[in-house]
TrEMBL record:
Record bears the keyword Signal: yes
Organism: Novipirellula galeiformis
Keyword tags: Signal
Domain of life: Bacteria
Signal peptide start-end: 1-20
Protein's name in the database: Uncharacterized protein
Length: 350
């Protein structure tokens, strides 16, 4: 049993509603009365700052594009997430990993009532996460807030669906846009079943980010595979350039993709070019999080990472117990500025 039963997830973002974005979502500026506007519709919660879009939370089930199995439909996640210049830093329904839904969270290798349940890999059909209800939506001049609840179910696409976890996201979006759009999410995951859920030791799971779909191509993956093979004979070989790899990672320890994978860090930045311009997103882990500094999974070839405390061993969420985590997200333009991100982490955790 973990010593800390409450995970505080904090993420900060900034946005404004004023025009139709790449998904055809309308952001309206003219009637805005607050600097940070949070607007709810039947399908979305949209957040903007000073007329610029920051994020969209998907209440409604999002259907996959043609050619991707309907099993990957999902609600209860954030996409798009924007940089201050309006570039989208998250990706959804990537053909290679259609279950990685932009800014999302789920456990992977778990045990419940004697059965293996995977809430992450939708194609296994043993578990899933979905939006359940909206608790509050509030605009403001310094911060906008919305609170939603998600449901983690076992066997969600069968007549044996059983609720296991109820997760509450409290999302705060700030008017201050330095060093980028900043979003805090506090995640409170409560076991609502009569039986405990055991999260088994595994190399990924938890809160995650999938980057823009422009950040991976067949050519970029081939280049990374060739690098891995060549590095066996030349350990000093440098990583492929950003132009070749399409995206890069940077951790709080100054490490990149392979050195950083599995390391225990305060923050990770994922960045690349969208429509020819550099942008990215940093994810900062709070010092009060369970097993801080948490291990991170940096995918060997895809633009995706997560903070994964289960890397360091199993833990259990007992009935009626709440597991909390806090992360901050900074969506930015240009290359990551390590000093600015470190200062943001210090401010976040003070």
């Amino acid at each position: 049993m973990p010593s800390r039963k409450t995970l505080s997830v904090c993420c900060f973002m900034i946005a404004t509603l004023m025009f139709a974005d790449s998904k055809g979502l309308l952001f309206a500026q003219s009637d805005a009365t607050s600097i940070v506007e949070c607007t709810e519709t039947t399908e979305f919660i949209r957040v903007s700052v000073r007329g610029k879009p920051v994020l969209v939370y998907n209440k409604a089930v999002q259907e996959p594009p043609q050619g991707i199995d309907a099993i990957y439909r999902r609600s209860g996640y954030i996409h798009p997430l924007y940089s201050p210049s309006g570039r989208i830093v998250t990706g959804d329904f990537a053909p290679d990993h259609a279950h990685q839904h932009a800014l999302f969270g789920a456990f992977v290798d778990t045990s419940f009532e004697g059965q293996p349940i995977d809430f992450w890999n939708q194609h296994k059909r043993t578990g899933g996460v979905s939006h359940d209800k909206v608790i509050e939506v509030q605009s403001g001049d310094e911060v906008g807030t919305f609170t939603v609840e998600l449901l983690h179910q076992a066997y969600p696409v069968s007549d044996q669906a059983k609720p296991v976890l109820r997760e509450r996201w409290t999302v705060q979006v700030y008017a201050d846009t330095d060093p980028g759009f900043v979003l805090d999410i506090r995640s409170e995951i409560t076991c609502i079943a009569d039986s405990p859920l055991r999260v088994n030791q595994y190399h990924y799971g938890g809160m995650a980010i999938r980057g823009n779909n422009q950040w991976v191509t067949a050519e970029s993956e081939k280049a990374i595979r060739q690098f891995v093979q060549a590095k066996e004979s030349d350990p000093r070989l440098a990583l492929p350039s950003l132009d070749v790899a399409k995206h890069q990672f940077l951790t709080s320890r100054g490490e990149r993709r392979f050195a950083g994978n599995g390391s225990h860090v305060k923050w990770v930045d994922l960045f690349g070019r969208v429509d020819g311009k550099l942008c990215g997103v940093a994810m900062l882990s709070h010092k009060d999080n369970f097993r801080f500094p948490q291990a991170v999974r940096l995918h060997p070839s895809k633009p995706y990472f997560c903070f994964a405390p289960m890397v360091d061993g199993e833990f259990t969420i007992e009935p009626s117990e709440t597991y909390t985590a806090s992360y901050r997200y900074i969506a930015h333009d240009d290359s990551p500025n390590a000093e600015s991100i470190e200062q943001a982490w210090l401010q976040f955790t003070r």
